Amino acid sequence: MKILLIALDGLGDRPILEKKSILKNLKNKENKRKYEENFRDFELLTPLEAANKENIDRLAEEGITGLSYPIQPGIVPGSDTGFLSLFGYDPFRFYVGRGILEALGAGIQIKPGELAFRANFCTIEKKNNEWFIKDRRAGRISNEEAKELAKQISNLEIEVSDEKKRKHKFECSFYHTKSHRGVLVIRKKDLKEKTVEKGMKEGIELNPLISDIDKHETGKFEFSKPLEESESAEITAKVVNECIRKINEILENHAINKERKKKGLLPANCILIRGGSMIEKTNKEGTVKEGADYRGLYGWGVSIKPFYEKYEMKAACVAGGALYKGVARYLGMDVIEVKGATAGYDTDLNAKVKAALNALNNYDFVFLHFKATDVAGHDGDAEKKKEFIEKVDKAIAPVLKLKDTIVVLTADHSTPCIMKAHSADPVPILIWGPEDRIRRDNINVFGERTVTRGGLGQIRHADVMPIVLGIIEKAKMFGT
Ligand code: ZN
Ligand code: ZN
């Protein structure tokens, strides 16, 4: 038995679309009847409920469904912690920090002593010496423009002095990943020639315990502050802030931004950073497969058992966004690069599905990730979220023909359009497979509220892998 896990990022939502007009547009009579029956008592539908999605509904109809809390009630998951949880790794123990995961996903080797952040191109405005964040994603700047701008900030030298006026040199490198996204890495300048083993503890060290500049909000721009009273945290915050100022200086006058302003578009004149994290030890290749120790915002991490050891399953990931590839690499999964896979609406859905299905020939477990449902949630665009779900639905049609495969379809968290942010709401989940393995329930429309009557009941993401292992008869016996 093989396992295909399909994740629609941020799929969960709240009722927002008017049922009347949705039903009016449903052409298929059978579908219309089903939707009328399921949503009889509601006036508003969520994007998932409203989506015309015959394939996903079939998976639900031929499968078992339920509602899952990604971490636990009352915890708002990030994508990173949500997926760790879904793969069966307790995020409270194994979360390493966004920066490291994002860097791993982008294929950047982070060495011990280096500090990595998730970074966004953004738009800032200045009024009377105060900085304001106007847009956190610089109007979702195009890949090409972002790539070009990134070249200008790929290698900056920053010098700061400590309290005793001693000078320290650092190097800040911005690596572009997809559209407005990237990774910022800060390293000590003079360590470059020295071996990692010998030179790391020399002089001042970088420290991930500084505040995020990106707080997922627009408004006042707040520079980074140390989160503990230590020289290293103070110096690190200083370096980060100097670096941001320098980046702003460089980007502000760049031709691309002048052109964007002329066209009435938002300039990408600064970057926002979050999730600063460091790695303590790596194996020789600088990868993390062998169970390294990590240092993220949550302090020292613990050694991690790779997915293939934990479940004795060879696993692969098909995703567009760096973070998802990063989580996969962190857990020792192989990442399959797919041409045309982006982390946006424009992603090549068919190419990704094809790659995932191909991978099932060589792997026991395939993680297939779609991002744009979350993007639409953050943009507050329920129509677009619904449309993207419908696109995914069309693309995954071949999945229904799979033999000897368990398909899990769910999300890492909810991103309600009305909140434009992640929420603590549980997410719908379905598990599909051969009829003699799955105890089908009688849910025929996949939605946040229909699945509450499903056979899985309410679970947590931590239960998903154990449930699947049970289905494929790999669960361990307890007792005699
Ligand atoms: Zn997510
Ligand atoms: Zn999100």
Secondary structure elements and their pairing?
Layout: E1 2-8, E2 17-18, H1 19-25, H2 29-38, E3 44-45, H3 47-50, H4 54-61, E4 63-69, H5 79-86, H6 91-94, H7 98-105, E5 115-127, E6 130-135, H8 143-152, E7 156-161, E8 167-176, E9 181-188, H9 196-199, E10 219-220, H10 231-252, H11 255-262, E11 270-279, E12 294-296, E13 299-300, H12 307-310, E14 315-318, H13 322-330, E15 334-335, H14 349-362, E16 365-370, H15 372-379, H16 382-395, E17 405-410, E18 427-432, E19 457-460, H17 461-471
The structure holds zinc ion (ZN) (2 copies).
One zinc ion (ZN) is lined by residues 10, 79, 374, 378, 415, 422.
Question: Strand share of the residues?
Answer: 15-25%
At the fourth level of CATH, the homologous superfamily of the largest domain is: Alkaline Phosphatase, subunit A
User: What does the radius of gyration come to?
Assistant: 23 Å
What is the second-level CATH architecture of the largest domain? Answer: 3-Layer(aba) Sandwich
Taken from the alpha-carbon principal axes, the silhouette is globular
Please mark out the parts with pLDDT under 50 across 5 or more consecutive residues, or reply none.
195-200, 281-302
Would you tell me which CATH topology of the largest domain applies? Alkaline Phosphatase, subunit A
What small molecules accompany the polymer chains? zinc ion
Total beta strands: 19
CATH C-level of the largest domain: Alpha Beta
Give the termini distance in whole angstroms.
26 Å
Helical stretch count?
17
Count of spatially separate domains: 2
Helix-residue proportion:
25-40%
**Oligomeric nature of the chains:** single chain
Classify the secondary structure makeup into a structural class.
Answer: alpha+beta
Mean pLDDT: 91
**What can be said about the biggest beta sheet?**
9 strands, antiparallel
